[in-house]
Amino acid sequence: MTPEQRAYWDVDDVVRRLRRIEGQVRGVQSMIQSEQSCQKILIQVAAIEGALKQVARIVSACSIAEQVMQAQQAADPTEAVKSALKQLINYA
């Protein structure tokens, strides 16, 4: 990862979030194996989904920032800006 890319996000924060998600997934596996109620499992799955969406937003923001920087250097920035906007809409 280049220093420019690191400036757009806190890598340590993202890694921490992913490790927490990993632990949550293991917890759900354990819940399923111990035959916990589906309602409890579903609550944990929803929490995982929300945490993963937040990671996707962070990474998406980094990607958008990269695309905008590339657009500033391009002769015709239109396509790069369109791509950044499309990505923003998909992860908003």
Major beta-sheet overview: none
Here the CATH topology equals Methane Monooxygenase Hydroxylase, Chain G, domain 1
Strand content: under 5%
So, the CATH homologous superfamily?
Metal-sensitive repressor, helix protomer
The succession of helices and strands, N to C, reads HHHH
Summarize model confidence as the mean pLDDT: 85
Whole-angstrom Rg = 18 Å
Query: Any guess at the CATH architecture?
Result: Up-down Bundle
Task: Give start-end ranges of low-pLDDT stretches.
Answer: none
Portion of residues within helices: over 70%
> Which structural class do you get from the secondary structure elements?
mainly alpha
The shape is elongated
Which helices and strands occur, and which strands form pairs?
Layout: H1 3-6, H2 11-33, H3 38-73, H4 78-91
Key structural traits:
mainly alpha; elongated; Methane Monooxygenase Hydroxylase, Chain G, domain 1; 92 residues
Compact overview of the structure:
The protein is mostly helical and 92 residues long. It has a single domain (10-91), classed as Up-down Bundle (Methane Monooxygenase Hydroxylase, Chain G, domain 1), CATH 1.20.58.1000.
